[in-house]
Amino acid sequence: MSELSTTFPPEFERLRGAARLAVYIDLKSPYAFIAIDPTRDMARSVGVEIDWRPFTLDIPSYLGSAKLVKNSKKVESSNRTQQQWTGVRYAYRDARRYAQLTGRTLRGTEKIWDSSLAGIAMLWAKERGGFDRFIDVAYPAFWRRELDIEDPAVLERALADSDVATAGFREWAQGPGRELHDRINQAAFDAGIYGVPSYLVEDEMWFGREHLPRVAWLLGGRRGPAPDVANRSFAR
Amino acid sequence: MSASTGEGPALTVALDIRHPLAYLALGPALELGRELELAIDWLPLASELLRRPSTPGPDDDRGVLHRRHRARMIAREIAVYADAQGLTVKEPYRNGPADAAHLAWLWMRAHARDALEPFLVEIFRRYWTLELDAGDAIAVSKVVCACGGDAADFLAWSASDGPAALDRVARELADAGIFTLPAYLVADQVFCGRQHLPMIRWLLEGRTGPPPI
Fold it and tell me: Per the domain annotation, does B106 fall within a domain?
């Protein structure tokens, strides 16, 4: 097979480290939102713990920027091409139809959020054993447009609602938390991660939940034929 | 295209012979059609082709790096899943014309419908093993002939009414909201990417059982 290689560069395995499965997510990604439960179900089905990590997308760098008039679908400002708009609109429609089937609300965002503080809050919650609870509180609220993820006070409340201690969060978020977040992001991007959800398993990296069948196949010892991509349920 | 009218095929599949992801989508869609005893409406569409990862340079910004990461990931994805399907994909970044192959596709759809799916399997295979120039009408007419079609009739049509018919299909698919391939039209919805086949199956089977999410 000329020019195409099935081999992954060693950076991905190094980035994964000791975790059997590392998964990168960003609160502002609708595809990451709808991937959470299938990813959990898949991991449960093969008995593997997930090492969740934040990856803050820099959307304007590759998809142009845009802002909607508040409470409207009218575009206030944008430097996106028509093709970029078509792709973005399809992505929201696509994510929404899957979200609706599980009774979730997924409203289009009014601007491109800086979700780095939410990523820092994820790290704070993770260090305190409350990562899953935090994303279960924060994700649905954000996609209902009820969570200002650029406001430290709002994130602090979301942490408290997740039964995660908040004392010291704001100071940590401005110093060590920010540094940790930036380090994790830079290491991921340097290794070749560019979107969410991204999955690190064995020496492979996959972007998109459609690869969960392969991730499960790898984690399960490569039994049977290698599966194709599929958005499918892993719930028992 | 009549995916939503209640008449004719309930599933339309749009592919470009020149895109490896379209090749990877062909087999699984054929299998779905067989399993559900479905007459799929197969349509050709010239799309944006696979992009080669850019060469690293000193002035690469975040956007350039992002697109390079993405191009490399798509290349690996094609390699891994083509391997799993047992498909050969040679010279994936070719970007020559496909008009002759796509015209033949439309001609077979209109005049030899029963042979269309074997024709698609053959023409995709020949293209990706470098046995076929998809822009060469004479070469393509030999595949038409091998699949039971009338090569002379195809060549005459491809030089007369064919190009307008191909343009019309492209406009209709664009109007339906298709912007990237492989694309599927079912129950008034557009799906891009073969990962949606479980959802498409669920819709075609009348939404019985839990949704595949």
Answer: yes
Q: Which domain holds residue B62?
A: 51-93
| A to B CB pairs, distance under 8 Å | 109
- What does the angle CA A54 – CA A97 – CA A134 come to, to the nearest 5 degrees? 30
B16 domain residue, yes or no: yes
End-to-end Cα, chain A, rounded Å: 38
Residue B212 lies in a domain: no
How high is the pLDDT of residue B119? 98
**Minimum CA–CA partner of B62 in chain A:** A61
Please indicate whether, in this complex, the C-beta atoms of B81 and A228 are within 8 angstroms of each other: yes
Q: Which residues of A touch B177 (CB under 8 A)?
A: 90
ipTM score of complex: 0.94
- B19 inside 8 A of chain A by CB: no
Looking at the predicted structure, is the pLDDT value of residue B20 above 50? yes
Question: Is any Cβ of chain B less than 8 angstroms from the Cβ of A227?
Answer: yes
Q: What is the pLDDT of residues B127-159, one digit of tens each?
A: 999 999 999 999 999 999 999 999 999 999 999
Helix extents (H) in chain A: 11-16, 30-46, 60-63, 82-100, 116-127, 131-143, 152-161, 169-174, 176-191, 212-219
What are the chain B neighbours of A95 within 8 Å (beta carbons)?
none
Class of domain A20-219: alpha beta
**Same domain? B65 vs B81:** yes
